[in-house]
């Protein structure tokens, strides 16, 4: 965990949950696992507020708790998850994906579960049905059964999953069966249970829900009336009490990865090739884990039968396309056997490495130009080259090649490796080879993406704060000198950045989405190298 990641987590926690939760979450990220008393003492926060903050973090999956490091009987310790907090940046993408796959109903289901951390199925169905009914024409309403159908599809495709039982989260799983005398007891697991450890992870409860969504008639209900309505809704028994559901982020990430692979195949080859790869990924999407290096082997006969009806290609043409995909240098598809007309897999790790490589090349080209990108691409392919070899292979004049190499070296995008001929490391008897280490370079670019997120959020937050101060001063009839003094709180460089930001404000959301796509590809590639 880097300083950039901790800063970005702090900004996200403050934006979504407030300053107190941000203080507690940031402290846990920096200090590691701590018990309740230590958190309260080291953050100078009242114990009651610490408890409420931890409840919020646990509710949204950003904090785990378990038995202390001193063993059974020691105080419960809390540990914040940086990775889980950073997923807040991707919430709009999760919601948009649910809308694309399952329409408005799926979009609202995922949005509600993300906003509340976890919910029961019955509460989710009622809340979503009410929201959809409120946006319908007068006299129309949404059936609960339609929302239940969308919820069921999300669970069947593993986009939603049951939360681990609450009783198991804070304590290690212990066996109730007495140990046989003379045999050592099995060590208790200290890892928090995962959703997949629950055998009923994707099993829908039998819920008795009949009726329609209700339209909000009055917008001026008091807080007590709203609490009373919510308590009444919660008290209605539907048969799923205590069964909570959460968003399965790994399944969404698997979908994003598959879409990136399909897009890459479409741009490299053609639409039919991408549809074949899409069919292979769809057939194994539920059975392939996020850490798998390959999809499940599929025979050519199975792929042929599973192709969409509108792709009326013959079997010999399919075999030709599969051979083309296997022989392609990108190696997205591999052949694992000859039975059933040939067994084929999608090489997920190789695909992620190629996508990350293409991202790095694109960044170098955007920042330093096409000639620098040519040198960078050359070093990726040849691995190690001397400066003279770079000049010859890239066909770039010596002076320009030298300047470009030193620029890339100063940005840590290219590394210089010394290979001495003699033990004294004399420069005249040493080879100096330029190389690119893809994994460290990907980590470097990932940190740069986090820094972009931080700068954008800090500028927008400061701008909004000053605009709010100016509006309140103008409303209270402040003098022009006071308004000028507040406006000068923004420095000249920040003012220029804000002007550019306001000028491109409509492009800001798409820019954040593009940065997040880059972050996702780099994170997936780095994660795949750890599990290789």
Automatic annotation (TrEMBL):
Residues 170-236 are annotated as: Disordered. Residues 218-235 have a biased composition (Basic and acidic residues). Keywords: DNA-directed RNA polymerase, Nucleus, Transcription. It is found in: Nucleus. GO terms for biological process: DNA-templated transcription. It comes from Salmo trutta. It comes from the Eukaryota. The keyword Nucleus applies. Pfam families: HTH_9 (PF08221), RNA_pol_Rpc82 (PF05645), RPC3_helical (PF20912), WHD_POLR3C (PF22536). Belongs to the eukaryotic RPC3/POLR3C RNA polymerase subunit family. Component of the RNA polymerase III (Pol III) complex consisting of 17 subunits. Residues 150-355 form the RNA polymerase III Rpc82 C -terminal domain. Residues 170-195 have a biased composition (Low complexity). Residues 360-436 form the DNA-directed RNA polymerase III subunit RPC3 winged-helix domain. One of its GO terms (cellular component) is RNA polymerase III complex. Residues 8-66 form the RNA polymerase III subunit RPC82-related helix-turn-helix domain. The keyword Transit peptide does not apply. DNA-dependent RNA polymerase catalyzes the transcription of DNA into RNA using the four ribonucleoside triphosphates as substrates. Specific core component of RNA polymerase III which synthesizes small RNAs, such as 5S rRNA and tRNAs. This is DNA-directed RNA polymerase III subunit RPC3. InterPro entries: POLR3C_WHD, RNA_pol_III_RPC82-rel_HTH, RNA_pol_III_Rpc82_C, RPC3, WH-like_DNA-bd_sf. GO terms for molecular function: single-stranded DNA binding.
């Amino acid at each position: 965990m880097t300083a950039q990641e901790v800063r970005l987590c702090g900004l996200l926690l403050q934006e979504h949950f407030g300053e107190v939760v941000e203080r507690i979450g940031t402290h846990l990220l920096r200090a590691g696992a701590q018990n309740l008393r230590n958190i309260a003492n080291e953050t100078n926060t009242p114990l009651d507020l610490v408890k409420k903050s931890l409840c919020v973090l646990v509710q949204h999956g950003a904090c785990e708790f378990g038995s202390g490091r001193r063993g059974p009987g020691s105080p419960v310790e809390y540990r914040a998850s940086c990775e889980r907090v950073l997923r807040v940046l991707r919430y709009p993408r999760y919601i948009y994906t649910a809308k694309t796959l399952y329409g408005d109903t799926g979009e609202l289901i995922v949005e509600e579960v993300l906003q509340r951390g976890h919910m029961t199925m019955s509460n989710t169905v009622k809340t979503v049905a009410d929201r959809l009914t409120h946006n319908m024409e007068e006299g129309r309403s949404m059936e609960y059964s339609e929302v239940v159908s969308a919820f069921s599809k999300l669970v069947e495709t593993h986009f939603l999953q049951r939360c681990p039982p609450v009783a198991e989260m804070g304590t290690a799983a212990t066996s109730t069966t007495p140990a046989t005398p003379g045999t050592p007891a099995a060590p208790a697991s200290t890892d928090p249970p995962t959703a997949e450890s629950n055998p009923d992870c994707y099993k829908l409860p039998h819920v008795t829900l009949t009726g329609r969504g209700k339209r909000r008639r009055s917008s001026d209900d008091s807080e007590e009336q709203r609490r009373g309505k919510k308590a009444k809704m919660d008290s209605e028994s539907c048969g799923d009490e205590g069964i909570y559901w959460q968003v399965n982020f790994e399944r969404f990430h698997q979908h994003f990865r598959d879409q990136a692979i399909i897009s890459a195949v479409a741009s490299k080859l053609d639409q039919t090739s991408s549809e074949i790869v899409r069919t292979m990924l769809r057939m194994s999407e539920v059975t392939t884990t996020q850490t798998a290096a390959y999809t499940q082997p599929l025979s050519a006969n199975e792929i042929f039968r599973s192709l969409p009806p509108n792709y009326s290609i013959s079997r010999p043409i399919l075999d030709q396309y599969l051979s083309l995909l296997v022989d392609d240098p990108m190696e997205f598809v591999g052949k694992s056997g000859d039975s059933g007309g040939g067994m084929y897999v999608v090489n997920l790790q190789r695909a992620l490495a190629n996508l990350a490589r293409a991202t790095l090349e694109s960044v170098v080209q955007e920042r330093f130009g096409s000639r620098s990108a040519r040198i960078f691409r050359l070093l990726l392919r040849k691995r190690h080259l001397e400066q003279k070899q770079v000049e010859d292979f890239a066909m770039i004049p010596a002076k320009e090649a030298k300047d470009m190499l030193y620029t890339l070296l100063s940005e840590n995008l290219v590394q210089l490796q010394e290979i001495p001929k003699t033990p004294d490391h004399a420069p005249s008897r040493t080879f100096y080879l330029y190389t690119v280490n893809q994994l460290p370079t990907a980590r470097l670019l990932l940190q740069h993406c986090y820094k972009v997120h931080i700068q954008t959020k800090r500028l927008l937050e400061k701008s909004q704060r000053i605009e709010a101060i100016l509006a309140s001063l103008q409303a209270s009839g402040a003098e022009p000198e006071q308004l000028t003094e507040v406006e000068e709180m923004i420095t000249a460089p920040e003012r220029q950045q804000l002007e550019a930001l306001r000028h491109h404000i409509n492009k800001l959301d798409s820019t954040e989405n593009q940065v997040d796509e880059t972050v996702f590809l780099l994170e997936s590639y780095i994660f795949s190298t750890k599990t290789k």
